[in-house]
Design brief:
The complex is a heterodimer.
Chain A: H1 2-26, E1 46-47, E2 50-51, E3 56-63, H2 70-85, E4 87-94, H3 99-108, E5 115-118, H4 125-130, H5 139-145, H6 147-152, H7 155-161, E6 162-163, E7 166-167, E8 170-171, E9 180-184, H8 186-191, H9 200-213, H10 225-235, E10 237-239, E11 241-242, E12 249-252, E13 262-263, H11 268-282, H12 299-303, E14 308-312, H13 313-326, E15 333-335, E16 352-355, H14 362-374, H15 376-384, E17 391-394, E18 398-401, E19 426-427, H16 434-448, E20 460-461, H17 467-485, H18 492-506, H19 508-525
Parallel strand pairs in A: 3-4, 3-5, 11-20, 18-19
Antiparallel strand pairs in A: 1-2, 5-16, 6-7, 8-16, 9-14, 9-15, 10-12, 12-13, 17-18
Chain B: H1 3-11, H2 16-47, H3 51-57, H4 69-74, H5 78-111, H6 118-130, H7 135-145, H8 153-156, H9 163-174, H10 178-186, H11 191-202, H12 204-220, H13 223-228, H14 237-258, H15 263-268, H16 274-300
Classes of the chains: A alpha+beta, B mainly alpha.
């Protein structure tokens, strides 16, 4: 009996050992070691005067999932990289479900790789820099190994990417506007005699007519929250980004000289808006459900219960197009309610690429980034796929989609880190409709009048030092602040006084002091 | 209830009071059971409803605008999902059998008074529930030192042992009369034989309970797969489905932020999400629910009826 048990255990251990052995051999991936490409004479190859005779394979991490044709497209890209730089890339994906956890593990776990996608805020940029994961890119390094990137990326993008006097990412270069526009029902505009909406006040006026005259359509439905942002935009104010303080702290974004941070309750504009909101809510501009709705922002607009949709221009266009496809009689259209106000461009560091500090091929990695970034052929491949299979070239550097199955998609393969608007193709519209033309006109007007950068545009408040007060403030805001800006708090002056008292008790003063302190040191350091 | 009591119950004519009591208790139990079923029925209904209907009217007891769209999204590539099913079933069966055996054996040893260091060992096990090295050292150990990347052992080993189950098992074994074990010894049974032939049969209810816990843990585990499994064809069902939902949501967010009006954007917006989640829930919970009836009877069974008389 005993013997048999012993032998059983022995066998089990053996099997386990075997399995573990498999595992060990299974992951010997040859990265970072120069894997010889067969039969190629190591002729003297150079790039910008640098010797690149040793062939290398670079490992690159991207976010998202591998589309069906991804490997096919990257085989094409590798052909070109091989020819020009004697290098190929091997791509691994961190899926949407795992990147939050695994991103930092790649660095702390000592994974052997060279390039990785990163982004300020949502893409782990600051945290990874803090843990020393990225290689610091000096201007010398960049201009030696990526001379063309140096020519494209503007100075402001580099300064956004700077943390403690060093740059750790190559930011992407495209002007994305983060502010919202308003999508409106064209049939209602016509009915009440409007051709265009050119100001915030005019928008409210039109809303009033809808509220009074349309029993089944509400001006804003359950989405009243967006209106306050249109109001702030109109007043040239922006919120200090950071967590848990909502719109409590504002700064004058259109005047770079003005470095004060305003506490919303001390700003007359806030009281004015709350009074306005109460008035509008009482007149039925939006429904009581706005406080806690399960609807998504576009639902009311698409189902016809709300006359407007307030969102960024890209998304608004998507849904306005969808609404017009389903209900051509609506003639929905897009409007900029503050055309005279200069619009801010999203930070360029919202998408970018970084080099692993422990990479064995930093120079070659930088050269590869240079190709991705500035070689139009590779830019097209990464963004659209293979010409003739996934897309067709049109005049003026435009494209039209052939890839009906979305086997590669458009901008769906984490190519966002090296988007370069100077060479990126735009979609060709065979018969541009009114919405297309309007969007183009709005974007052109914005691009012609970009808001000069305010030092606080790139500032993010970190509430770690006042986390307990910040948490207390957050609960107060949910209870007292949100109903106030939605006009549901009854007597406005009394409600603001109550909010002020509650916030004082929660310790808003120490949060405010901390924000001011951080903002000052941020402004001094940049 | 054994046969004697039921037979006697038939013979005694029940009075009105006990009949009222029986009716009431059945009624209340029935209502509570129904309440437990309602959410699940809603999930099933929602998985057959159209996305728009859910958005407009919320969830309901009956499917609205009956459609199979969500399921067709889930089973877009049936071979892939079936393979993920296979992986999960294999892991669950293998892990449950091995884990149950190991945990029962450990609990048995720890419960034996002859084992001098049993308290020290118990403390050693318990200590691991209070303190651990954290995620990074654990990850490094698993990937660099044990080389368990893309290896099924990475999914089996972490769940093989649960201290919580060990405590359940141990306290249960403590309830078995020592005289039984002594008797086995006197009859010439070895240590291992005593455990397998004498103790284990008495542990059926506890083993069923613990086995179910282990099986559920393996069935529901996606976290280890997230950390250690990179290859798509090795993914267990839970993680595979979790990724699907996340991908669709991420894709929608992406399209929102990337600028709209493009051909790709409009098609992305019409993908089901709410109904898809419900369909996934049904796909995932279906098989494991079938496990319950099989182990159910062990829960109810008495423990040592007729084992030791007097």
């Amino acid at each position: 009996m005993k013997k048999r048990v012993l032998s059983l255990i022995m066998i089990l251990t053996l099997i386990t050992a075997l399995f573990a052995g498999c595992g060990k051999n299974g992951n010997a991936v040859g990265t970072g070691k120069g894997t010889e490409t067969g039969g190629k004479d190591a002729a003297e190859k150079t790039f910008n005067g640098v010797d690149i005779s040793k062939p290398v394979t670079l490992k690159m991490y991207l976010l998202g999932d591998r589309t069906a044709d991804f490997d096919k497209v990257y085989a094409e890209i590798n052909k070109r990289l091989q020819e020009k730089l004697n290098a190929t890339v091997e791509v691994e994906f961190l899926s949407w479900s795992e990147h939050d956890k695994k991103y930092s593990l790649l660095f702390s776990g000592g994974e052997d790789f060279d390039l990785i996608f990163t982004a300020a805020g949502w893409g782990h940029y600051e945290n990874t820099v803090a843990m020393g994961g990225f290689y610091a890119l000096t201007k010398d390094f960049i201009s030696t190994y990526a001379p063309d990137i140096m020519k494209v990326v503007p100075e402001v993008a580099w300064s956004q990417a700077t943390i403690d006097d060093s740059i750790y990412m190559v930011p992407n270069y495209q002007n994305e506007f983060g502010n919202n526009v308003v999508g409106l029902r064209g049939d209602l505009l016509q009915k009440y005699g409007y051709n265009d909406i050119t100001s915030f006040d005019q928008l409210l006026e039109f809303y009033g007519k809808v509220a009074a005259g349309e029993p089944s359509v509400s001006p804003l439905g359950t989405q009243a929250g967006g209106l306050y942002y249109q109001y702030l935009l109109d007043k040239g104010m922006d919120t200090v980004s950071g967590t848990s303080t909502k719109e409590l702290f504002l700064y004058n974004t259109v005047n770079p000289e003005d470095k004060t941070i305003t506490y919303a309750l001390d700003w007359a504009g806030f009281t004015d808006y709350c009074k306005l909101a109460k008035d509008l809510y009482d007149k039925g501009y939006w429904s009581a459900d706005s406080l806690a709705t399960t609807e998504e922002r576009q639902d009311g607009f698409l189902s016809g219960t709300s006359a407007s949709l307030i969102w960024n221009i890209g998304t608004t266009e998507t849904y306005v197009d969808q609404a017009n496809k389903e209900h051509p009689e609506w003639k929905a259209q897009i409007f900029d309610t503050s055309p005279s106000v200069a619009k801010a461009v999203n930070a360029y560091i919202n998408n970018g690429m970084a080099i692993n500090a422990t990479s064995k091929n930093k120079e070659r990695a930088m050269m590869v980034l240079n190709e991705f970034y500035t070689n139009p052929e590779i830019q097209d491949l990464t963004s659209l796929g293979i010409e003739g299979t996934h897309w067709k070239a049109e005049a003026d550097n435009q494209y039209s989609v052939l890839d009906a199955e979305s086997n590669y998609g458009v901008d769906a393969n984490c190519n966002w880190g090296w988007v370069n608007m100077t060479i990126k193709r735009l979609e060709y519209k065979a018969n541009p409709d009114e919405v297309d033309n309007k969007v183009k006109a709005i974007k052109d007007s914005w691009n012609a009048n970009i808001k000069p950068e305010h030092i606080y545009d790139g500032f993010t408040f970190n509430n770690a030092n006042v986390s307990s007060q910040a948490a207390a403030v957050e609960t107060v805001l949910d209870q007292y602040y949100t109903p106030l800006v939605l006009g549901m708090a009854g007597d406005v002056d009394a409600a603001i006084a109550e909010l002020r008292k509650q916030l004082d008790n929660a310790g808003i003063q120490s949060v405010y002091d901390e924000i001011k302190k951080q903002a000052e040191s941020y402004a001094a350091g940049n | 209830m054994n046969e004697n009591t039921t037979a006697r119950a038939k013979r005694i004519k029940r009075g009105l009071d006990s009949r009222v009591l029986a009716f009431l208790s059945y009624f209340i139990n029935g209502v509570v059971a129904l309440f437990c079923l309602v959410p699940f029925i809603m999930v099933i209904s929602a998985s057959f409803s159209s996305e728009e209907a859910i958005k407009l009217n919320g969830f309901s007891l009956l499917p609205q605008n009956f459609t199979l769209e969500a399921y067709s999204t889930v089973f877009k590539e049936p071979s892939v999902i079936l393979r993920a099913y296979g992986v999960t079933i294999f892991l669950t069966i293998f892990g449950t059998v091995a884990g149950l055996f190991l945990q029962t054996m450990t609990a048995y040893v720890l419960s034996r008074k002859e084992f001098e260091w049993r308290n020290k060992f118990s403390f050693f096990f318990y200590f691991t529930t209070l303190f651990n090295g954290g995620l990074v050292p654990y990850f490094v150990l698993m990937t660099r030192y044990l080389g368990l990347k893309d290896n099924y052992l990475a999914l089996v080993l972490p769940l093989l042992f649960s201290v919580y189950n060990l405590l359940i098992m141990k306290s249960y074994i403590m309830g078995i009369p020592e005289s039984l074990i002594d008797a086995a010894k006197i009859d010439g049974c070895g240590e291992f034989g005593t455990m397998v032939k004498v103790v284990m049969p008495l542990l059926k209810p506890a083993m069923a309970t613990v086995g179910l816990f282990i099986a559920l843990a393996y069935w529901n585990d996606w976290y280890n797969a997230m950390l250690y499994i990179g290859k798509d064809e090795m993914q267990p069902l839970q993680y595979f489905l979790y990724e699907q939902v996340n991908n669709i949501e991420a894709y929608k967010r992406l399209v929102e932020s990337m600028g709209g009006g493009s051909t790709a954007a409009v098609s992305a917006m019409s993908m089901p999400t709410q109904s898809l989640k419900m369909a996934l829930t049904v796909v995932v919970t279906g098989p494991i629910i079938l496990l319950y009836p099989f182990v159910q009877r062990y829960f109810v069974q008495g423990i040592t009826i007729g084992a030791v008389k007097g």
